[in-house]
Amino acid sequence: MLKIKDDQIKKISKEFKEAKPYPFVVINDFLDPVFAKNLSDKFSGELKKIDEKYIKSFDSGYGGDRKKQFSPNGCSQQTQNQVGFFNQQPFLDFLEKVTGIYGLIGDASYEGGGFHQTGRGGRLGVHVDFRVHKRLNLKRELNVIIYLNDKDWDENWGGGLEIWSREGNSMVHKVIPKFNTCIIFRTDDRSFHGHPDPLGCPDNKIRKSLALYYYTGTELVYAENSRKTTVYIDGTETSFEFKNRLKYGMINFCLDYLPPVLTRKIIGRK
Ligand SMILES: [Fe+2]
Hints:
Layout: H1 6-18, E1 24-27, H2 33-41, E2 55-58, E3 67-70, H3 77-84, H4 89-99, E4 114-118, E5 124-127, E6 132-133, E7 138-147, E8 161-164, E9 171-175, E10 182-186, E11 193-195, E12 207-216, H5 220-224, H6 239-257, H7 260-267
Antiparallel strand pairs: 1-10, 2-3, 3-4, 4-12, 5-11, 6-7, 7-10, 7-12, 8-9, 8-11
C-alpha cells in the first residue's frame, strides 16, 4: 500500500534525522493513490454515519474550533482492516528504518488519533502532544499524519501544519496539507506544532487527515519481572524447548548481572 521503494528509505531517513528544529520528514505521494482516495472518501461516506461514541468534537480550545476526530474502531470491518495496516509490523519496520527508533508500537485504540476533520474557521493551537499513553503505560515517540484533502485543496485556504522552534516562539517550517502528503515527526517535550490560523476554506470543504501515533515500551519491565521467558514443568518439555530454556537462561543471566551495553552486544538487542 506504500509507494515508497526501499532505495528511497535511506534518503528519507537522512532527511528525518537532519531536520531542524526537530526530526521530521515530509513525503509526497505517500500511499498508493487508490488507497489514499478510498481513505479520503470515507469522510463523505461512512464517517457521516459513525456512532456518536466514536466521535470527539472540539468546538473551541486546545483541540481547535470546529474539529472532529473519528475513531477507526467505529468504522466498518473493511476500514478497520485498512487503517490497521499502519499498526502492522511491515509498516512499523518502515518507520523504524526511517527514524532509527527501535521497538515502535502502534495503537489499536487510536488514542487522540484516527480520522481528523476541520471545517472553515477551525484551527489547532501550537502545542506539544501528550507524552504518555495512560492506559498502555507507553511513551509516545512519533506522529504520522497523512493528509487526505481533496485534490483541489487551495493552499491559500490555510491549514498548513506549522513546525515551530524548540522555544515555541516562531514558525520554522510549514507543511501544505495536499492530498496524499505525509509528515512523520518526532514528539518530545518541545516539538511544537499546530495550524493556529482559522481555516479559510469554503463552507463545503473540510481539512481531512489520518493521524497515527507510535510508542515504545520501557526496559523497566525487566526489573519488575523476575520471570522473563516461558517456563515449562521439568520433564514435560521437548528438546527444542529445553535448548530454548538454556538460551533464555543465558539471556536472563546477562540481563540480571551484566551492564546493559554488554548485554545488548551479547543478545543482539539494539
Ligand atoms: Fe499534536
